[in-house]
Amino acid sequence: MKRLVLFILLLIPLNVFAKDVVTLDKCIDGDTASFSINGNVQKVRFIAINAPEYTSKIEQFGKEASEYTCNKLTNANIIELEYDPKSDLKDKYDRVLAWVYVDNSLLQKELVENGYAEVAYVYDDYLYINDLCSIQEKTYNNKIGIWSNDKRQIGYCRNHKNIFNDEFDYNFIVNNMIYILILILLFCLFIIIVVGVSHGSKKNRKSRSKTRC
Predict the structure, then answer these.
(1) Is residue 61 part of a domain?
(2) pTM score, two decimals?
(3) What is the CATH classification number for the domain harbouring 34?
(4) Domain region containing 164
(5) Do residues 34 and 42 touch, judged by C-beta distance below 8 A?
(6) 165 and 78, same structural domain?
(7) Do 158 and 53 share a domain, yes or no?
(8) Residue positions annotated with a catalytic role
């Protein structure tokens, strides 16, 4: 029984939600920053979004986006990077592509929600795209931030099709995978215990029957 439990535990991918805890090296702009990752300083491009420029050229809301990102990063207690399984690890400029968490809050979502970035540069079915497009739609309709400009048009999300219907929320499954795995493990342990008790009861009945004979 112990061996079976151990085997089940080994089957669970403990690194499903593994993230790199990093430290801020320096702010760059609204969608890029430099971090120390496992002791190596690297530029990180926030995957799946694009914020207005505020480096080589200045664009509307570029300053606000840059200041928002820098303020969140410099005041964070913990910064984590999550790498999307459907994306390349780096872009053509050798920048790491990652989802950025600031104190357990996804920074990409915050930037889109506040109108400081749009969903862009999406080349596959990335982890949180459905959520980002839903948030962007509300931001667009309310003309927040970059969407206050009536001439600006939605890019990627306009053509985005959620291939998962309402009955099967892929992002929910992914985000709660660890809890689902725990439930599966508990169910398996329950079955093992029930089978063990049942088997033990049968042995006891047989033993009593032999004793009577």
Answers:
(1) yes
(2) 0.69
(3) 2.40.50.90
(4) 20-171
(5) yes
(6) yes
(7) yes
(8) 45, 53, 95
pLDDT in tens, the chain (213 residues): 555 444 444 444 444 456 899 999 999 999 999 999 999 999 999 999 999 999 888 899 999 999 999 999 999 999 999 999 999 999 999 999 999 999 999 999 999 999 999 999 999 999 999 999 999 999 999 999 999 987 888 888 887 755 333 444 555 565 666 778 888 988 888 888 877 767 666 666 666 555 555
Identify whether residues 117 and 164 lie together within a single domain.
Answer: yes
Buried-state track 191-201, b at ≥16 Cβ within 10 A, e below 16:
eeeeeeeeeee
Residue 6 lies in a domain: no
Is 10 part of any domain?
no
| Residue 130, amino acid | N
Residues with Cβ within 8 Å of residue 136, at least 6 apart in sequence = 112, 118, 119, 154, 157
